[in-house]
Specification:
Keywords: Signal. This is Delta-aminolevulinic acid dehydratase. It comes from Candidatus Litorirhabdus singularis. The termini are far apart. This protein is of the alpha+beta class. The protein is globular and about 55 Å long. The protein has a single domain, classed as OB fold (Dihydrolipoamide Acetyltransferase, E2P). The protein contains five helices and eight strands; from the N terminus they run H-H-E-E-E-E-E-E-E-E-H-H-H. A five-stranded mixed β-barrel has the order 1-2-3-5-4.
Length: 202
């Protein structure tokens, strides 16, 4: 079941229990869920209003995006999305996002534009899996490859962001990424440098 289907189920359920908390099946870590989303990007939170955040786009790892700023809609009480408070201003992230392609009936109220399902052309972030990773300089942490269910930031060794980008691009597999999560970032960097050096000698 895709994140879009999960969100529709949540909205249908909210018609009978408007304030009920979202219930969804855990979809897995980042390595499993990112392929089912429309856009994988890196960026920094530059604004927050209502249940949305604005991400200053840095890199696109998969999908198409021409906007320097991406609006991401989060939880508004009953949606399967994380809370805005989890993404403070100036924090940086890797996010696997779902594009809003259709207007949900009653999902956007012009009278309360800061609290809504979201606008067509914007994006949503699911909380039903490891859809986001924390980005600190050149390394990421989070539920990357084999974290505990419903734990979005399990203890793990930081992984070089370029390795995660290579996975998203299909250049390395999930096993290689899992192994990297068990190594020190400096050792990861040394291995990358060694492979690069050997390729240049061919």
């Amino acid at each position: 079941m895709t994140p879009r289907h999960l969100l529709w189920l949540c909205l249908l359920g909210s018609a009978s229990a408007a304030q009920a908390e979202c219930e969804c099946i855990w979809q897995g870590p980042f390595t499993r869920v990112q392929q089912h989303t429309d856009l994988v990007v890196t960026g920094q939170v530059i604004a927050s209003q209502g249940n949305s955040i604005d991400i200053e786009h840095s890199e696109t790892w998969r999908g198409t995006n021409y906007q320097p700023t991406i609006r991401v809609w989060l939880n508004s009480g009953e949606l399967c999305r994380p809370e805005v408070e989890q993404f403070p201003l100036e924090s940086s992230w890797v996010m696997a996002l779902q594009r809003i392609d259709e207007q949900v009936p009653g999902g956007f109220n012009p009278s309360t534009p800061n609290i809504s399902y979201g606008r067509v052309g914007d994006y949503t972030l699911s909380s039903c899996g490891g859809y986001w990773l924390s980005l600190h300089g050149e390394v990421v942490t989070g539920n990357l490859a084999s974290g505990t269910r419903w734990e979005h930031n399990p203890k793990m060794s930081p992984v070089l962001s370029e390795l995660v980008a290579a996975f998203v691009a299909g250049e390395i597999d999930a096993d290689a990424l899992k192994q990297a999560s068990e190594l020190d970032p400096e050792l990861q960097r040394l291995q990358l440098d060694t492979r690069s050096f050997l390729r240049q000698q061919r």
